[in-house]
Specification:
Layout (H helix, E strand, L loop, with lengths): L4 E5 L8 H17 L4 E4 L5 H7 L4 E3 L16 H7 L3 E4 L8 H14 L2 E6 L5 H5 L5 E4 L11 H4 L1 H11 L6 E5 L5 H9 L4 E4 L1 H4 L4 H19 L1
Helix pairs in contact: 1-10, 8-10
Bound molecules: SN-glycerol-3-phosphate.
């Protein structure tokens, strides 16, 4: 049975790091184990070592630079996140855009190191061109809906439908949809429209009981996957 991909971007909220960051990760891990559904946590770079040790979930960075090893002050390189315990990274998030050549260079390095990668795009026309560069997945997010509480599934379902068409031209690369995902219904719709899963931040990071939100997402995603198969 195929499971939905659930990617939670911790971003830089006040509970994204330190003890609070570990606590939220552990709560999500518990639910993930209960439903045998892997949940990816994309966390601040400083949290990669501790979370890789404390939870069994795949830990991603939120960004990497594509410079070679050497004199590059302030850089976060693929080799560093691997050594810190990360399984992969986001690239080109709307809040951390990089150039196309940097995405390509970073992907070559990540693939060589055996690290996973999720390249973010803001429009469906970029799905195929970015997928050709062989990331693990593409995450499509209309920037105006990020953090809005209005989901891509409800406000712009055609973005998902078009992205699904585009990703089918590059077999082996997954398609995740995000921006404003707030409840199980949003996850259900995205997966029913053909997405392999969802990316989310605020609905989980700002929740009183994040594990309940994640549980709703997982259950709805599984239901939609079952109905699709
Ligand atoms: O990376 C996912 C993120 O950009 C979505 O944010 O707050 O709309 O779920 P949010």
């Amino acid at each position: 049975m195929k499971k939905p991909i659930i990617l939670i971007n911790f971003k830089a909220y006040e509970n994204s790091f330190g003890k609070k960051g570990v606590d939220i990760a552990k709560r999500i891990e518990k639910i993930s184990i209960e439903y045998s559904t892997e949940v990816i946590l994309s966390v601040p770079a400083t949290m990669i070592p501790i979370l890789s040790q404390e939870v069994s979930l795949p830990i991603y960075a939120q960004h990497v630079d594509s410079y070679p090893l050497g004199a590059h002050t302030g850089s976060l390189l693929p080799e560093m996140i691997k050594e810190a315990g990360a399984k992969g990274t986001l690239l080109n998030h709307s809040e951390k855009r990089i150039r196309a050549d940097e995405i390509h260079d970073a992907l070559l390095r990540l693939n060589k190191l055996g690290l996973e990668s999720v390249v973010c795009v803001d429009r469906y026309e970029l799905v195929e061109p970015m997928a050709i560069l062989r990331p693990t997945a593409i995450l499509i997010e209309p920037p105006e809906l990020i953090g809005s509480g209005i989901s891509v599934s409800k406000a712009k379902p055609e973005v998902i439908t078009n992205a699904v068409k585009e990703i089918s031209k590059v077999p082996g690369v997954f398609l995740i949809a995000g921006a404003g995902i707030s409840n199980g219904e949003d996850v259900y719709t995205a997966v029913k429209l053909g997405a392999d899963g969802i990316g989310v931040a605020s609905a989980v990071m700002k929740a009183k009981e994040p594990e309940k939100v994640v549980e709703d997402f997982i259950k709805s995603g599984i239901k939609a996957m079952d109905e699709r198969n």
